[in-house]
Amino acid sequence: HAPCDHRVPSCIREPRQLRKVLALYPGKEVKKNLEAMYKRVDRHLCDDTNLLVVVWRSIQEEFLKQYKRFDDLLTRCYPGSSLHLEFDVNDLLSYFVTIAKSN
Fold first, then answer.
1. Burial category of 42 from C-beta neighbours within 10 Å (exposed 0-12, middle 13-18, buried 19 and up)
2. Cα separation of 67 and 71, whole Å?
3. What is the C-alpha radius of gyration for the chain, rounded to an integer number of angstroms?
4. Do 89 and 67 contact (CB within 8 A), yes or no?
5. Which pTM does this prediction carry?
6. Which of 5, 34, 61, 97 gives a 20 to 30 Å CA spacing to 90?
7. CB-based contacts of 32, cutoff 8 Å, min separation 6
8. pLDDT for position 21
9. pLDDT digits (tens, 9 = 90+) for 31-44
10. Interacting residues of 88 by C-beta distance below 8 A, sequence separation 6+
């Protein structure tokens, strides 16, 4: 892994500041925003269910990729700290499946 990118704004380099930023994104808030995104995508693709499935799967893959990248940055930039998002990959997968099944 590459070292932490120190081009990150100094306000985020401080663990206590980052903790505040991470607190803005609890799992229930992320799920709520994913639900809203699903509704927007569904509204635009309502005539093509197959395309909706493909697009939702692509969104899921990209979201998970970005989550893993962010989690990796937290690990590299703040080794030994307790800084992490409130949710994990399994939670995210559960959110995506639940949202797709409920719609």
1. middle
2. 6
3. 16
4. yes
5. 0.82
6. 5
7. none
8. 87
9. 999 999 999 999 98
10. none
